[in-house]
């Protein structure tokens, strides 16, 4: 049976773990060739190898999304190795922050903005021309529910994810007529290393996180992956400029 993304090519940043890893695996399961990238080379190569061993098509390139040269190399190599670029999941992101706003420091501000905002901008800047030339393409950026509202003790992170939503909506409007759709996913709390790091620092967060979602549990990375694949599918052909909450009802309250 033909798979839905047979013959398509997907690029994923932050693909060595968590949401990026789950989405890279889901793209491969749906028949796409997947270019994984991350700063964690060892883990990223392991995920790509596991996809290939399971019968999928994957490769890994180390890419720090802060660096323009790395991102250009990633996009160029994706097209070189797989022949095209249909889907880009710009997902690499960092949290890093544990303070209220007035206790924050400039280094942390710059580090978060560099990866979360400049990284997504940098990726789109190199992906969009390839998609415009082809006359089609879909980009999904990872924002957060912190990009739709407040995130106490994570104000810089929240600002960075609001910026991702702004970049997403602007690019969607600018390139809609050129065949490129651009959307964002806005997860609430998802079961990844990012969450585990937060709970290690403050174990009370486990219960708080579970209870903040009306659905009564945290989310799974595969549930974000499923939404990313939907946004890339033809079924979402009329959907662009959307910041889609994946939040167990959190933003409905
Ligand atoms: P994670 O820490 O498990 O994975 C993030 C991956 O990004 C890691 O493999 C890391 O090495 C990579 N990365 C970090 N900096 C990078 C850089 N400069 N260049 C390339 N790769 C880099 O985290 P996750 O939970 O899977 O997070 C993925 C995305 O989802 C992030 O953008 C995060 O902000 C967002 N998000 C996560 C949650 C959550 O609860 N886990 C909720 C909302 C949004």
Structure description:
Keywords: Oxidoreductase. Belongs to the short-chain dehydrogenases/reductases (SDR) family. This is Short chain dehydrogenase. The protein starts with 8 loop residues before the first strand and ends in a 7-residue tail after the last strand. The longest helix has 29 residues, at 106-134. The chain has a single domain, classed as 3-Layer(aba) Sandwich (Rossmann fold), CATH 3.40.50.720. The chain has a seven-stranded parallel β-sheet, with helices on both faces. It has 253 residues and is of the alpha/beta class. The mean pLDDT is 97. The radius of gyration is 17 Å and the shape is globular. The relative contact order is 0.13. The protein has helices at 18-29, 41-53, 68-82, 106-134, 155-175, 193-201, 205-211, 221-232, and strands spanning 9-13, 33-38, 57-62, 87-90, 137-142, 180-187, 243-246. Helix 4 links the parallel strand 4 (87-90) and strand 5. The chain is built from eight helices and seven strands, in the order βαβαβαβαβαβαααβ. Nicotinamide-adenine-dinucleotide (NAD) binds next to helix 1, helix 4 and helix 6.
In percent terms, what proportion of residues is strand?
Answer: 15-25%
What structural class do you assign from the helix and strand content?
alpha/beta
- What's the main sheet like? 7 strands, parallel
Low-confidence stretches: none
Question: What value does the Rg take, in angstroms?
Answer: 17 Å
For the secondary structure, the number of strands is 7
What's the arrangement of strands in the largest beta sheet?
3-2-1-4-5-6-7
What's the CATH H-level superfamily name? NAD(P)-binding Rossmann-like Domain
In CATH terms, what is the fold-level topology? Answer: Rossmann fold
Helix-strand pattern:
EHEHEHEHEHEHHHE
Tally of contiguous helical segments: 8
Regarding quaternary structure, what we see is: single chain
Number of domains: 1
Helix content: 40-55%
Per CATH, which architecture?
Answer: 3-Layer(aba) Sandwich
Ligand inventory reads: nicotinamide-adenine-dinucleotide
**What is the CATH class?**
Alpha Beta
From the N-terminal CA to the C-terminal CA, the straight-line distance is 42 Å
* Broad shape: globular
Mean pLDDT: 97
């Amino acid at each position: 049976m033909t798979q839905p993304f047979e013959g398509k090519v997907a690029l994923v940043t932050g693909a060595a773990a968590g949401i990026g890893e789950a989405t890279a695996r889901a793209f491969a399961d749906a028949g796409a060739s997947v270019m994984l990238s991350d700063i964690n080379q060892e883990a990223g190569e392991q995920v790509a190898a596991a996809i290939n061993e399971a019968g999928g098509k994957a490769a890994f390139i180390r890419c720090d999304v802060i660096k323009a040269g790395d991102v250009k190399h990633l996009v160029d190599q994706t097209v070189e190795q797989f022949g095209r670029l249909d889907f880009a999941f710009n997902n690499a992101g960092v949290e890093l922050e544990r303070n209220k706003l007035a206790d924050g420091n400039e280094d942390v501000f710059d580090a978060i903005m560099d990866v979360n905002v400049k990284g997504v901008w940098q990726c789109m800047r190199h992906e969009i021309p390839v998609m415009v030339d082809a006359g089609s393409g879909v980009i999904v950026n990872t924002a957060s529910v912190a990009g739709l509202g407040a995130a106490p003790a994570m104000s810089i992170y929240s600002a960075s994810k609001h910026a991702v939503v702004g970049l997403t909506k602007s690019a969607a409007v600018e390139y809609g007529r050129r065949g490129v759709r651009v959307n964002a996913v806005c997860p609430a709390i998802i079961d990844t290393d990012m969450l585990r790091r937060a709970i290690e620092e403050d174990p009370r967060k486990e219960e708080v996180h579970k209870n903040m979602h009306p659905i009564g549990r945290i989310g799974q990375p595969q549930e974000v992956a499923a939404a990313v694949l939907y946004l890339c599918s033809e079924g979402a052909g009329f959907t662009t400029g959307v910041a889609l909450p994946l939040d167990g009802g959190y933003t409905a309250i």
